[in-house]
Every structure is written in structure tokens, then in C-alpha cells.
Q: What sequence folds into this?
């Protein structure tokens, strides 16, 4: 396959997202613009200009009407996707590390950094779609980092927007009630910073990635680790592929060590693991820096990776990807088919 | 599906025929395909019959309404006003990357790597380096049979022209001797010898053809005068001549004579300049 190289950012990428239909790709980097691309040909539709610092995170709502960006300039901005117009700015006390729309598009969560004496907080804002220019800038709920907990690095909504799952700096995963902000449960699953947290399509389980070189699939209700994927490099991102039962992990050596080692040692590859069997089944090379974020097309036909090297690479899966099956899968299908035929005979 | 068959008629083109450029003929076939026959004149001036068989296939693609409407969006932000379509500055197609999914992908990857390495080693062995001692694919100095087979025959080196012999001798002594330091015998000139060397007899030849080498200078251009040294200036990296040579004659008269005879003469398609390498004190 020949990937599309999207070179719209001058600095390293921080997040890459597809919209619900998968026709648009949203990318943000450590420069001050967010870029929107057509996924089918890599054309840049436009940019969101207005932030005064690194943009750490971006998300787009289910209807692709509004997008939100969280930036190191202490703000989260709402944008009209079609025109790139900044419709509202939420002012916060510290840099915004993660933003995400709820599944029903009625709320928005912002993870803020724990610096300058402020507690790390997950703020949930209510969204007003009737008049997008006037939003309530006081959060519905503020979930402050609890006592004895390290700061929150990532957070996301679960199924039905019922809970919020947060990943902490020390590898702990915690669960909160999304409406009351009440703490429910926590589990110590990683030994290092939780770098990413992405949900399955039905949002009943999620995959985490960590600097401790492992990735876990965790169940929402029990916070039980269902699967573990071990690698040989610190991970920055992990995604679950629809259609095929894979997970894609990305990472590599720390950015600061990159210049002192060769590309082969850097392990700057997207790794494909089988979600159920847990084996590594393939790798995709290409980036010449660590992969900072991986997003998979909602229909499972392609994936995009954003790297420390400033490139976004969009890979369209080939037929061999969809054809790949384990021997046990093939046998199981064959026996199933033959038993069906037997039924017909009788 | 387009099938193109080109049939060429081998006969000279009459000017009048150019005029009757026939209209393409379209035949609708029974199976729904179309055959278009047209004539044109190719670059060799021959008339060519082009038969195209065309089958039209309508591919219907249903696209989400929202996706279709989003494709018509005007560009905004930093892209405002830019023409639709991917811009090569922001969108490029990368090199081919492979994703071969298999449970033992590590093995296949390692095998591919091994193959690459062996191929590279193979290519290296054919790099054209030949040892003068044993004929193997390595430098003479690194020959493993250096001690048993002995070094290159010194008599053969002596047979070469004087300048080349000097270089050989310098190499044989294992050390590079800059040209200006070389003595008459090719070795390092003593301090006294160097001081005594008479630059008064040295002549500079410029604007030489690049193809002229030292041997040609000695054998053709300067054959009639007795020469002490002759040095052609070459680019150190590429080894190509810079078109400049310094020649030391045995006597000043010979040098003077050479300047008078050769300056402004044509040699190998170029007018060469011959002058004293240093301005003459008594001449000025």
C-alpha cells in the first residue's frame, strides 16, 4: 500500500481523529493550527486558526457540525467545522490536555493539567446546539483529582455517556459517574503514564497504552484487564480496529532520545496485534520518529498515524489485510459450513 | 474496458490523403459494446487505422448524503481561496509500505533482511577492485598473500614514464610525496636539491583539453625538448584534468623555445597558452 502523507503541521502531531463517517481527518500538532483533511485523497479542507499555543487534543461531534480543540493556551475552543469559524472559547485555569464530545453530543469533557498550584481536573460542559455561539462556560461537573491519585492524563466517555474513564500518570485507571462526578472505582493496570485511551465501537471496553511498553484491553463495568499486549518500546497510542479483530499500537523511543539512536533501533512502527489471540501479526514502517497517535477509520478500511516527525500517514488497508485469518478460524468456518450442508441434506 | 488495436499501412502518404481525414466510424455491436474506427497519421508519416472497442459500464456508488455535501465545502482557514484538489505542498503519496499479516511475521521479516544482506555482499564483491598481487577483489595493500607472493615487480614500474614512475616509487615507499617535494629519482628531494631546483625553467601550460594526459604531453606536445618534470593538475576527487600543466625543462633556452613555439597553438581542439610559471625578473 502507498500511504498518503499529510504534511500540514510544522511540529510533532499530538492527536489524529476521524469523524463518524470517516470522510474527514482532524489533526492537531504542537503548532497553533488544527487541520482538516479529506480522508479519501488527503486534500486539506481547511485549518482552525486562533489558538495561541500547542493544541493537545481535538474531537469532532457525531454530526460533524462542531469540533473542539484543547490547547496549552489555557482554553478549549469550539469550531464550526464547515467554515472553520471559532464559535466559542472555554477559558480554563491550566493547559487542556484532552477534549471529547459525549456520544449524544450534549456534553463535552476537558482534562486540564495539574500545574501552577491548580489540581488536575476533568471539567464537563453542557453544549447548546440551538445557539452554538452562546455556551455555558461554567462546567456542569468538575472532577478534581482525588487525594493519593496522580494527575489525569487522558479521559473518555463510556457507553451511553454513563461513566467517564480516566487514565492517570502512574498507570491507574479510574471510573466516575458522568452526571454526578462521583468516584466509582479504580484499578492499577499500568506501571507508567497512561498515554492513550480509546474505546471499542460499542464503548463497553477500551484499550489503553502506556509508557511501560504495554497495552491493555479493559472492561468498563469491572475495570478488569481482559487482554494484555506487550511490546519493546514505550507506547503513545493504541486503537481497536472495527471489522477485523486487531489492535494497532504505536509508539517508539522517547522523543528526546531519538537523535542519539538509529532509525532501526527507534521502533517507530505501527504494530498490529490480534485482539483475541494477543500475537503480534505485523508491522508498518514509515515514520522517522515515534508515533504519537493512531486513529482507525470507523469502517475499518484505513488507519492514520501522526508522528513526532510532523507527518500524518494515512494507510488504506489492502485485500490481504481483510483476508488474513488464523488457521483455527479457517477450520472453524469450514466445519460450520459443512455442518450446515449436512443439515440441508437431511 | 477499452481495447485498442493499431494497424499500420505501409505506404507513403500522399498529401491529398491528409485532407480526407475520415470521420470516426462508430458501430454498435450486438453485445452492447461499441467499435470506433478512426484514422490518423503517425509521426513517421504513415496512416494508421485505430480500432477501439468500448464497453460502457455504469458504476453506481451510494454515498452518505452528509459526506457528499461535505465534499463541496469551500476551503477555509489557511487554505482559504486555494483551488480544490490536493495540494502537493501538504499532500504527498508515500513510498510503498508492506503489511504482511502472519503469525510468524518476524521469521519472514528476518529472512527478507538476510536476503538483502547477502545481495548487498554480492554486489560489493563485484565492485571492480583488483589486487595487483593475487588478482582478488581487494586492494593490493590489503592482500592476504602479500608476504607469500611478494610485492609488485619493481622493474615493471621502472619501465613506466618518468612521472608515473615517481608516483609509483612514492607509493612503494609507502608515503605520499607531494609533487613539489619529489626529487629527480622520484623519492623525496633533499632540502638542498629542492633549493637548487630551478623554477626559472618551469613553464605553465593552460587551457589544455581535458582529455590530454601526462603521457600525451610528454610524447606528443613536448617530445622535442628535454624535460625534467611534467605535472598535470587533476581534480583530487574525480581525477579529471583541470587543463593545467607545469613543465620543467632542462634549460631555460629550451623553455623559452617551447613558449615561442607552442603559445597560441592549437592542440586537441583548443588554443593552448604557454607562459612562464613565475614572472621572470630579468624579463620584466
A:
Amino acid at each position: 500500500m502507498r500511504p498518503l502523507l499529510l504534511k500540514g503541521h510544522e511540529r510533532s502531531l499530538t492527536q489524529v481523529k476521524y469523524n463518524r463517517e470517516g470522510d474527514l481527518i482532524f489533526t492537531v500538532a504542537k503548532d497553533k493550527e488544527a487541520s482538516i483533511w479529506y480522508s479519501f485523497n488527503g486534500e486539506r479542507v481547511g485549518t482552525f486558526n486562533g489558538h495561541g499555543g500547542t493544541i493537545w487534543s481535538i474531537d469532532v461531534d457525531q454530526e460533524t457540525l462542531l469540533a473542539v480543540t484543547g490547547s496549552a493556551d489555557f482554553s478549549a475552543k469550539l469550531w464550526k467545522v464547515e467554515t472553520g469559524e471559532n464559535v466559542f472559547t472555554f477559558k480554563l485555569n491550566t493547559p487542556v490536555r484532552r477534549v471529547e464530545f459525549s456520544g449524544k453530543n450534549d456534553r463535552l469533557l476537558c482534562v486540564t493539567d495539574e500545574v501552577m498550584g491548580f489540581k488536575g481536573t476533568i471539567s464537563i460542559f453542557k453544549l447548546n446546539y440551538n445557539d452554538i455561539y452562546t455556551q455555558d462556560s461554567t462546567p456542569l461537573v468538575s472532577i478534581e483529582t482525588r487525594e493519593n491519585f496522580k494527575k489525569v492524563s487522558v479521559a473518555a466517555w463510556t457507553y451511553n455517556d454513563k461513566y467517564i474513564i480516566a487514565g492517570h500518570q502512574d498507570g491507574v485507571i479510574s471510573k466516575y459517574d458522568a452526571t454526578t462526578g462521583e468516584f466509582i472505582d479504580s484499578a492499577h493496570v499500568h506501571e507508567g503514564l497512561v498515554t492513550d485511551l480509546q474505546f471499542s465501537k460499542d464503548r463497553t471496553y477500551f484499550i489503553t497504552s502506556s509508557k511501560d511498553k504495554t497495552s491493555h484491553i479493559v472492561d468498563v463495568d469491572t475495570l478488569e484487564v481482559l487482554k494484555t499486549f506487550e511490546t519493546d518500546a514505550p507506547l503513545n497510542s493504541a486503537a481497536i480496529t472495527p471489522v477485523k479483530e486487531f489492535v494497532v499500537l504505536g509508539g517508539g523511543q522517547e522523543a528526546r532520545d531519538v537523535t542519539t539512536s538509529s532509525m532501526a533501533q527507534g521502533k517507530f512502527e505501527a504494530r498490529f496485534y490480534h485482539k483475541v489471540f494477543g500475537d503480534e501479526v505485523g508491522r508498518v514502517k514509515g515514520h522517522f520518529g515515534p508515533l504519537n497517535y493512531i486513529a482507525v477509520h470507523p469502517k475499518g478500511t484505513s488507519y492514520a498515524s501522526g508522528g513526532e516527525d510532523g507527518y500524518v500517514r494515512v494507510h488504506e488497508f489492502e485485500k490481504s489485510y481483510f483476508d488474513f485469518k488464523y488457521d483455527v478460524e479457517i477450520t472453524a468456518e469450514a466445519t460450520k459450513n459443512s455442518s450446515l450442508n449436512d443439515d440441508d441434506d437431511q | 474496458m477499452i481495447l485498442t488495436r493499431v494497424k499500420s499501412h505501409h505506404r507513403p502518404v500522399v498529401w491529398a490523403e491528409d485532407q480526407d481525414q475520415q470521420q470516426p466510424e462508430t458501430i454498435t455491436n450486438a453485445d452492447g459494446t461499441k467499435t470506433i474506427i478512426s484514422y490518423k497519421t503517425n509521426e513517421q508519416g504513415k496512416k494508421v487505422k485505430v480500432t477501439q472497442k468500448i464497453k460502457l459500464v455504469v458504476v453506481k456508488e451510494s454515498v452518505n448524503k452528509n459526506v457528499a455535501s461535505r465534499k463541496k465545502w469551500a476551503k477555509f482557514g489557511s487554505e482559504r481561496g486555494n483551488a480544490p484538489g490536493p495540494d502537493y505542498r501538504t499532500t504527498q503519496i508515500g513510498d510503498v509500505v508492506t503489511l504482511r499479516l502472519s503469525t510468524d511475521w518476524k521469521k519472514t521479516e528476518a529472512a527478507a533482511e538476510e536476503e538483502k544482506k547477502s545481495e548487498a555482499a554480492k554486489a560489493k564483491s563485484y565492485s571492480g577492485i583488483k589486487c595487483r598481487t593475487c588478482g582478488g577483489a581487494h586492494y593490493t595493500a590489503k592482500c592476504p598473500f602479500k608476504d607469500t607472493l611478494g610485492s609488485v615487480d619493481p622493474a615493471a614500474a621502472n619501465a613506466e614514464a618518468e612521472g608515473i614512475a615517481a608516483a609509483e616509487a612514492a607509493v612503494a615507499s609507502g608515503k605520499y610525496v607531494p609533487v613539489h617535494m619529489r626529487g629527480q629519482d622520484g623519492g623525496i628531494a633533499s632540502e638542498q636539491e629542492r633549493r637548487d631546483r630551478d623554477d626559472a625553467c618551469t613553464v605553465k601550460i593552460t587551457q589544455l583539453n581535458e582529455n590530454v594526459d601526462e603521457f600525451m604531453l610528454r610524447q606528443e606536445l613536448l617530445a622535442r625538448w628535454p624535460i625534467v618534470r611534467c605535472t598535470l593538475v587533476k581534480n583530487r576527487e574525480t581525477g579529471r584534468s583541470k587543463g593545467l600543466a607545469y613543465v620543467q625543462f632542462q634549460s631555460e633556452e629550451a623553455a623559452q623555445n617551447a613558449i615561442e613555439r607552442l603559445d597560441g597553438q592549437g592542440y586537441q581542439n583548443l588554443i593552448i597558452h604557454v607562459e612562464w610559471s613565475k614572472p621572470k625578473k630579468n624579463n620584466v
